[in-house]
Amino acid sequence: MSKLFRAVILGPPGSGKGTISERVASSFGLKHLSSGDFLRENIAAKTEAGVLAETYIENGALVPDHVMTRLMLPRVEEMTRHSWLLDGFPRTLAQAKALNSTCELDIVISLNIPLETLKERLRHRWIHPASGRVYNMCFNPPRVQGMDDISGEPLIQHEDDKPEALVARLRHYKDVAKPVIDLYRAKGILHMFSDTETDRIWPYISSLLSTKIPTDLGDAQRATTH
Ligand SMILES: Nc1ncnc2c1ncn2[C@@H]1O[C@H](COP(=O)(O)OP(=O)(O)OP(=O)(O)O)[C@@H](O)[C@H]1O
Ligand SMILES: Nc1nc2c(ncn2[C@@H]2O[C@H](COP(=O)(O)OP(=O)(O)O)[C@@H](O)[C@H]2O)c(=O)[nH]1
């Protein structure tokens, strides 16, 4: 079996983690594991962890580490035969240490985007709440204004994407993320990308992954998942 590849993508809200993860998944055949999507699935299915997490999310708070690790680590452990990219987890040092004890990461992608750019993007971010699909009224608008492309249902804007809540949220992110970034830098697996445009960052990420991912991985993984 070819070597499996494990990566994490880090970045503040609006930095393009979801957008880039989708590109990585489709170009390299990796599984995209998003903590936000997984939480939403658990909330919809009313699992024990989902019920616990819901109040925190509604209040704009982070879900406690023990709930997150209990939710995410089994999901990661299930993926023994797949290469994956984790998006949204780990978010705290405690989560990063818990992940360390279950697997060895090959690389960590860290997105470093100017604050003004983040504010501008999130102001225009609209989501389809049931699926977590994300649109941007300028960068990737839906086909019909205000409606999800797949279900045709209305799009909404997150309360905490509105300008008043944003600055506090971004500051909080910075405080929590710093020790996580430091940990991965010390391990020598951190790759930082700075720009205002996803389309300018993407070629660098793509060429980095091309050097790290075994060439037959995409095809092999696609063949086993179809
Ligand atoms: N690793 C995590 N640790 C704690 N809480 C988390 C974690 N991942 C997700 N959450 C919770 O789930 C919510 C939704 O997560 P999701 O990543 O979809 O959106 P977000 O926090 O708005 O981030 P972004 O704007 O970067 O997409 C978060 O606001 C947070 O409450
Ligand atoms: N204008 C612009 N918007 C972008 C760019 N990259 C991503 N977006 C949009 O910015 C918002 C945040 O991106 P997302 O991938 O959700 O970031 P995440 O919060 O880190 O997962 C979404 O509405 C994206 O469609 C970009 O280069 N330019």
TrEMBL record:
GO cellular component assignments: mitochondrial matrix
Subcellular location: Mitochondrion matrix
Family recorded in the similarity comment: Belongs to the adenylate kinase family. AK3 subfamily.
Domain writeup: Consists of three domains, a large central CORE domain and two small peripheral domains, NMPbind and LID, which undergo movements during catalysis. The LID domain closes over the site of phosphoryl transfer upon GTP/ATP binding. Assembling and dissambling the active center during each catalytic cycle provides an effective means to prevent GTP/ATP hydrolysis.
Domain of life where this protein originates: Eukaryota
UniProt subunit comment: Monomer.
Protein name, entry field: Adenylate kinase 4, mitochondrial
One Pfam family cited in the UniProt record for this chain: ADK
PROSITE patterns in the cross-refs: ADENYLATE_KINASE (PS00113)
Binding-site positions, a ribonucleoside 5'-triphosphate: G14, S15, G16, K17, G18, T19, R125, V134, Y135, T198
Residue positions binding AMP: S35, R40, A61, L62, V63, G88, F89, P90, R91, Q95, R169
Region spans: LID: 124-161
Chain intervals for the UniProt region annotation (NMPbind): 34-63
Main location: mitochondrion
Any one GO BP annotation for this protein: GTP metabolic process
Domain Adenylate kinase active site lid: 125-160
Gene3D superfamilies: P-loop containing nucleotide triphosphate hydrolases (3.40.50.300)
Recorded name of the encoding gene: AK4
GO molecular function: AMP kinase activity; ATP binding; GTP binding; nucleoside diphosphate kinase activity; nucleoside triphosphate adenylate kinase activity
Keyword set, alphabetical order: Acetylation, ATP-binding, GTP-binding, Kinase, Mitochondrion, Nucleotide-binding, Transferase
Function, in words: Broad-specificity mitochondrial nucleoside phosphate kinase involved in cellular nucleotide homeostasis by catalyzing nucleoside-phosphate interconversions. Similar to other adenylate kinases, preferentially catalyzes the phosphorylation of the nucleoside monophosphate AMP with ATP as phosphate donor to produce ADP. Phosphorylates only AMP when using GTP as phosphate donor. In vitro, can also catalyze the phosphorylation of CMP, dAMP and dCMP and use GTP as an alternate phosphate donor. Involved in maintaining the homeostasis of cellular nucleotides by catalyzing the interconversion of nucleoside phosphates. Efficiently phosphorylates AMP and dAMP using ATP as phosphate donor, but phosphorylates only AMP when using GTP as phosphate donor. Also displays broad nucleoside diphosphate kinase activity.
Organism, as annotated: Tachysurus vachellii (Darkbarbel catfish)
Reactions catalysed according to its record: CDP + ATP = CTP + ADP; a ribonucleoside 5'-phosphate + ATP = a ribonucleoside 5'-diphosphate + ADP; dCDP + ATP = dCTP + ADP; CDP + GTP = CTP + GDP
Record EC number: 2.7.4.10, 2.7.4.6
